[in-house]
Design goal:
With 360 residues, the protein is α/β, with parallel strands linked by helices. The chain folds into 3 domains: 151 residues, HUPs (Rossmann fold); 50 residues, no CATH class; 145 residues, Riboflavin kinase-like (Elongation Factor Tu (Ef-tu), domain 3, Beta Barrel), CATH 2.40.30. Helix content is 28%, strand content 26%. The protein has 11 helices and 16 strands. The chain has a 6-stranded parallel beta sheet, with helices on both faces. It has a 6-stranded antiparallel barrel with strand order 9-10-15-14-13-16. The protein has a two-stranded antiparallel sheet with strand order 7-8. Strand 2, helix 1 and strand 3 form a beta-alpha-beta unit. Helix 5 crosses helix 6 and helix 7 packs antiparallel against helix 8. The longest helix has 19 residues.
Length: 360
Amino acid sequence: MRVIHAGRDRYDLGPSAITIGKFGGVHRGHRALIARMRDEARTRGLAAVVATFDRHPLAVLAPDRVPPALVSDRREEQLLAELDVDAVVVLPFTRAFAALAPEDFIRRVLVDGLDARLVVVGEDFRFGARGAGDVATLREAGRRLGFDVDAVPLVGLGATNAGRPGGAARPGGVMETGGVPSAEKCSSSEIRRLLVAGDVSGAAAMLGRAPDVGGFVVHGARRGRELGFPTANLGPGCDEALGLDRAVEGFVPADGVYAGWLDVFEGGPTGADTGTVHRHPAAISVGTNPTFADVPRTVEAHVIGRDDARVTDFDLYGRWARVIFVARLRGMVAYRGVEALVAQMRQDCADAAAALGIEE
């Protein structure tokens, strides 16, 4: 798969099937849309192309209203690449781009720029200045300019899944493309709401994968190691000893303790999910650790199931890692003393192992 930055890279993909939008999070709704486009492209002998933007449109139109990103741009490109498309074309979203009338958008971007023969969009798709264009606009232009339009119904979870308590696992049941829109539409804003509440299993049901964050493993206060529970710390920000200055990438869920996985990468480009990956089961802490004062908010992962000798040699500093959240175990609590904290940490490890279906 090629990642092409329009305006910077030269490209000629030939006749293409296109879907277009800002696919932040690449959730199940996005995946259904892209799968529909890809399958139709294969049937018609077209290139399967995802067109996205180099920033959230609100970053240009209303900077004070830009929602926090679910994933970084690089992570979005990686997730899109996993969907077996031929190319991802990144369009620069500028004020001039936002001001394009629907007809100009269709001619310049879809027809002249991408040689679209099929455009696959959600049934609520809007485009052009002030969102003046819709599916009907596309279809009318397609009849004149020689491309087909496929409007895909919204994808969501069944109404019986709505309102499940935070942290409770949701059953499967994402609707097949072409079904009746469900009571709970898959959307990035709803996923953010779930993560703010700590409902990582609910977010996973909409994402079609467990939510995650990425970052370099940096030096922390070493309190976990002193207590017998060494952790891989992701962020925040700078680690002068390692020469790193980079915040955690992705949407960090609510403070609390989670069961999940720690993926550690080696052999690839620095700061990228490439090369050899080693996956470890983990008990994950998000927050400030209220038992101790003046602790910044961090994401820490303690690898479970390792004996003391192996832990001693387990040096991950400076590695790129991804923390994957599977289940929320509990909220943050300030303990009266270190002994109570250590006892709870032991219980957290046991609970995490049970949630992951492994032996501690």
